[in-house]
Amino acid sequence: MSDFPWLTVLVAVPLVGSVVVAALPRAELAKLVALLVSVLTLGVGVAVALQYELREGMQLTETHDWISAFGVHYALGVDGLSLLMVLLTVVLVPLVLAYSWTHADPGSGASGSARSFFAWALALEALSLAVFLATDVFLFYVVFEATLIPAYFLIGGFGKAGRGAAAVKFLMFQLGGGLVLLASVIGLYVVSAQAGEPSYLHSDLAALDMSTAAERWIFAGFLIAFVVKAPLFPLHTWLADTTEKATPGTSVLLVCVLDKIGTYGMLRFCLELFPGASQWATPLVVTLALISIVYGALLAIGQDDLLRLVGLTSLSHFGFITLGIFAFSSQGQSGAILYMVNHGLGTAALFLTAGHVIERRGTSSIRRMGGMEKLAPVLAGLFLVAGLATLSLPGLSPFVSELLVIIAAFDYHWWVGAVAVTGIVLAAIYVLSMYQRVMTGPGPLAGDHAAAGEHHDDPAHREPAGHGTAAGPGTGTATATRPEAAVAPPAVPEARDLRPHEVAVLTPLVVGLVLFGFFPMPLFDVANPYVEDLMARVDVDDDAPAVPPGTTVEHAAEEGAH
Amino acid sequence: MDFVKPTIEYAELAPLLIVLGGACLGVVVEAFLPRAVRRTVQVALATVVLLAAFATTIWVATDLAEVADGAARGLLAAEGTIVVDGPTVFLWGLVLLLSLGGVALFAERRIEGGVSAFAGQAAALPGTEAEREVSTRGWEHTEVYPLLLFAVGGMMLFPASNDLLTMFVALEVLSLPLYLLTGLARRRRLLSQEAALKYFLLGAFSSGFFLYGVALVYGFAGSMQLAAIAEAVRNDTGNQGLLLVGMGMLAVGLLFKVGAAPFQGWTPDVYQGAPTAVTAFMSAATKVAAFGALLRLFYVAFGSDRWSWQPMMWVIAILTMVVGAVVAVSQTDVKRMLAYSSVAHTGFLLTGVLGVQGAGELADGQVTSLQAVLFYLATYGVATLGAFAVVTLVRDSNGEATHFDRWAGLGRRSPWLAGAFALYLLSMAGIPLTAGFVGKWAVFTVAMSAGAWPVVLTAIASSIVAIFFYVRYIRIMFFAEPDVGPDGHPGEVASVTTPSLLTSATIAAGVLATIVIGVVPGPVLDLASRAGDFIR
């Protein structure tokens, strides 16, 4: 069985599935097939995980020449880091598809677009998996960029008015970052060609001896691309717009899966290929991470749009992840990797429950919500759990990772830790005030009819067509048709509780949050060997360790205690 | 003085001779066959000639002898005036394939309701009784096929010429038919004729520059032969001033043809005014031929003096990319947008041209700049031809609807065609898994290897700008509703006319090539690398 190309199959199943789904005649059938394909992918992902040997490094590798003139290979492989990312992806996609079963359906005869949502989502899954599995930098770059096409169509095609502009903004940021990365990828080729036979294999590049200047320039390109992707402070502005306009399902795919490519890339490429330059850039990156933590949280507190708020909490969380990565200690790295998984689960739960709330309220404006708790206790409970996970309550899995990152931050420097800790406090504020405003209180029952008149940001699934209007000239028409739309359905949509299948979709996420909150060992078992390898690799070239020599011993001791 | 009979290598020159012979035959057909059967015969003749020439090109390519220890393959033909080597046959094949697409687009009659896209009688003044009469009789100019063949003949000779005079003759042979074809549009004839006049005047002017450059370089080297010029440059004999000025003049002539800034002024007007089928053929094939000639001139004749011309190329490449990308953003006409995008692509190609390095500076298996430029030409030619072919199909009551707003919502009315156009745009934007990405990667890489990082950074910045206007079209096609007019009725939008097999096949072949080259670029890259170096 060792020769069986498991990883190719893992990528191919959703890819072929997306083509099949796009070609199917009936929307209902297409949705069913798409869900089955994503479950099958989950199965393949689990099969990969079962064959994975802990502490064996890169495995299940496949390497074939692709473009020999460029030294490019079709090379896949899985190690602890990629395994966790792959599992996160294959778990989240079926949940998103199941969630979108009713939500992506734009109704009124636009059945084609529900089908295209499912097809694009599967395409996005396939390409994201390829990103996490690629062990050739060129292949990584190709799929890294290719993920943007399904993402663009998911944002631009589904969501509320103004999504066209949001999609273009998203694409311009991402492609801009991608082209900067292209410059670095080309730089790597030149350096590699000068050293002998050009090769893009990760292992060949890691063994390459680069001049300090070249290493730093190339590193800068990679870092900028990943800072856009992740996103971090100065390059984050696309995030809030995108999550506000896109459907919650799309946002889960983007924020919980696609954006992880940014932090994944920091570990896989910035740290592994350019350890020296990474340490050189640490002060800058740590500063950006701290700004992101505080600034993202402050922005989130001030938001009125529920989805925008959730999107901005992720800015804060990506700040934590990056801080953990660039703190250069094993706690920080393990914490960051766990954080990537936990953030995926927690934020997905928050996005999806927020989507349910918005669907029931007919608006995404927090001001016009309230009182949901009494009407939909189960939804309120799940929303609270997801929110508490976001603020890292002990007992839920994000707590473990956040604690590790903060320990690492204090290790790095006391003031870094001090600033990072404020992120926790701010998180408590934005989550609890959000819960209070959305769920508790009397609710805008009486005043809602009045408010319905000024509906200016209905969620998309209320709009007649899935492809609806984009920004710009079209917005006028959309507004014109609104009053009727607001009258036709009940102004306060039936605030009924979650239906059983909706609970079923959210259950795995909540179970994951609680399980890994009390028992994070499986995650550590996978992540720690990778972190040890990484630390060893970074330290090889480490002339001036960021961590004082004495502390490494304590780290080892603490590691053992886990 | 004895007259010595020149030896002509008929076998190796067969593709060229077939095309030029076919063109002459086309003129004879025009003179002697009745009007009713002319079109069929001409189309068949042009197709057969191009296919035969392509087949012989392949045969010639497989048969080339190795020279210079296997670094290059080929021979000097026709007393050293024409050189048939690896790059030549690669470019021949490419030009011939693109011309086949061009013939298919020329022959399309279904979208104009039974007539071709060319004027019924060029001599009939627009708006006169004569024009109406011609129009009711349904005449059409079938001379366009021999004209196309002559242009193709010139395009094949241009990159193959081994002395400056042959190069000049080739330049004129390829240009004159294009000037004519530009002025032959059936609709918007004044615009078309204006474009033809502009193209002719500016083209004639640039030819003058080229000829002056030929004279000056002859003054420097004492020979027209590229090899002799290279020898003179290496030995640094003669007047350096003559060489530099002459080189500059020759560059002006060639850069005009490829549409590099600051000589890009004609491209938008000509691309917009010419019948779209001609634009498609001309934008793709001319660029291939002219870049072939540019490469041969600068690599073979002036190769050892590259320190003199590389800085000039840096400036031109940067200027061209920036002008092309920035001005394209403000275009609201799809043909003008594609014209400026082709200017930007000229800049990217020049980025590859200036990336030339000596054989000693290259690692084993590293991409050479010649290989990169040849590959880029293939990807660019396919995407441009296909994109313009799509433009011919998007029409409203006034013919082709080239205005930006008319394309709104096209993706929902005709998803396949809009998808094909989107793919061509993505390829031009250089998105991975399309051919354009690999091409861009290749030219940027060779420039970076040569240390031209400012050019590469500019190229990347212009790519970001370029992506903006390409994506805008995708957005308007797929996500925008048609504008609502002042009276509340939706404005007129373009719809897609069902074409005959000719245009559909061209578009489909382009889509296929764009995807296949994008995913498996190996074979084409190998082909470009097997072409080897120029022989000197």
From TrEMBL, chain A:
Residues 476-489 have a biased composition (Low complexity). Belongs to the complex I subunit 4 family. Pfam families: Proton_antipo_M. Residues 134-426 form the NADH:quinone oxidoreductase/Mrp antiporter transmembrane domain. PANTHER family: NADH-UBIQUINONE OXIDOREDUCTASE CHAIN 4 (PTHR43507). It is found in: Endomembrane system; Membrane. GO terms for molecular function: NADH dehydrogenase (quinone) (non-electrogenic) activity. The keyword Membrane applies. The chain crosses the membrane at residues 6-25, 32-52, 72-97, 117-134, 140-158, 170-191, 217-240, 252-274, 280-302, 309-330, 336-358, 378-400, 412-432, 503-524. It is a multi-pass membrane protein. Residues 446-493 are annotated as: Disordered. Keywords: Membrane, Oxidoreductase, Transmembrane, Transmembrane helix. Coiled coil: none annotated. This is NADH-quinone oxidoreductase subunit M. Its main location: membrane. Residues 451-465 have a biased composition (Basic and acidic residues). It is an enzyme of class 1 (oxidoreductase). Its EC number is 1.6.5.9.
Automatic annotation (TrEMBL), chain B:
Keywords: Cell membrane, Membrane, NAD, Oxidoreductase, Quinone, Translocase, Transmembrane, Transmembrane helix, Transport. It is an enzyme of class 7 (translocase). Its EC number is 7.1.1.-. It is a multi-pass membrane protein. The keyword Isomerase does not apply. Residues 161-462 form the NADH:quinone oxidoreductase/Mrp antiporter transmembrane domain. It catalyses: a quinone + NADH + 5 H(+)(in) = a quinol + NAD(+) + 4 H(+)(out). The chain crosses the membrane at residues 13-33, 40-61, 89-107, 144-161, 167-185, 197-221, 241-263, 275-299, 311-330, 337-360, 372-394, 415-438, 450-471. Pfam families: Proton_antipo_M (PF00361). It is found in: Cell membrane; Endomembrane system; Membrane. One of its GO terms (molecular function) is NADH dehydrogenase (quinone) (non-electrogenic) activity. Belongs to the complex I subunit 2 family. NDH-1 is composed of 14 different subunits. Subunits NuoA, H, J, K, L, M, N constitute the membrane sector of the complex. NDH-1 shuttles electrons from NADH, via FMN and iron-sulfur (Fe-S) centers, to quinones in the respiratory chain. The immediate electron acceptor for the enzyme in this species is believed to be a menaquinone. Couples the redox reaction to proton translocation (for every two electrons transferred, four hydrogen ions are translocated across the cytoplasmic membrane), and thus conserves the redox energy in a proton gradient. This is NADH-quinone oxidoreductase subunit N. The gene is nuoN.
